[in-house]
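Recap quiz, item 2
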Amino acid sequence: MPGSGYCWTVLTWPAPQIPELPGRGDVVRVHDSSTGRLVVASQGPSASLYVCGITPYDATHIGHAATYVAFDLLGRAWRDAGQHVTYASNVTDVDDPLLERATATGVDWRDLAVEQTALFAEDMTALGVIPPDVYLGAVETIPPVAAAVEELVAAGAAYRVPLEDGAGGDAPELGDVYADVTADSAFGQVSRLDEATMLELFAERGGDPERAGKRNALDPLLWRRERPGEPAWAAGSLGTGRPGWHIECAVIARAGLGLPFDVQGGGSDLLFPHHEMSTSHARLIGDGEVHGAGAATHVHAGLVAYQGEKMSKSRGNLVFVSRLRAEGVEPMAIRLALLAHHYRSDWEWTDASLTEGVQRFETWRSAVSGNGGPDADATLAEVRAALADDLDAPRALAAVDRWAELSLAGTAEPVEGAPGVISRAVNALLGVRL
Ligand code: ZN
């Protein structure tokens, strides 16, 4: 399928309403994966966030949802602290796993990508996740990605690797393009792993350390030339093909946020190689005059297990948000079940997780149903302090639980309007509509 030329625009979803709250939130600190320290990732009037998006070949599972809800909290905490937030994300709507799934199920890969991207948007809407301001797909970003790869080749930071027979369409002499990790003296500073660990993770997570003709085993793919039966796009001197994953995120982050930006986020399994590689590419492609930086801070969400193992597509032990919704589960109860775990912890989803989420939702909803209730000021301050301290959602939930308990007991001196303050705070800060 040379020069497929297929292009579509990935669509974002409706923004939830964010109620106004009295006062201001605290300065937000988050855990920097590179240094292991709590840092103020963004100072000043604006904050920028890039969260790696989905590869749309399967619906949103609870592990994905936990990641996007975690970074949604960060955006909400920044906004509450008075910062203007710009959020960018991507959809990897052409990639090996997507094509493999399409082939295996006999579905056109384009239909699969479009359908699953739409389902993801529905799940995010239901979960009250604020949509990205800049949301781009890999397919619609091919021209700037190809230009960035050409730039890296011209700078000597990328090189061609010869193809196997039958690959490369009309120009088999043009090889796949790989980045030379030794061209970036700061390579390795995001994950700070030793080389043996890097090699192991690279092989485990989509890399190809054994590919013949590479300069270094860790060099990542930038441009994959056309292969029989695979979609490909014309790209000037590179020859027909499609982009690698890491360069896609580097270019979309640059397009949406400029370089450098404040926080790059994702699940902890993206730390290496994905974030190490995309940051390295961002350093080398720069932003016009600015060279030398990608994301300033890397923040990672823990992984969610189910039935004793990490929830993953390859293992097939997935709990889908859309399936829970179809069963009639209140989406806000799902969100509360996610928020009951600190974003950085690895945890296991069980039936009890959902039962607790449903109970908490019902308790909170009845606690805010009256005109008067216990004073809300201290609770609002506690929720703000918890979120500013590395997005400690479980602590924030506990503060609201205490208020709800007092409210339902009816023993505190009632303050008019207090339930409304709690309801708006829970909505604005935790994204939970009661
Ligand atoms: Zn990414």
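The first strand starts at residue 30 and ends at 32.
The two ends are 50 Å apart (CA to CA).
End of item.
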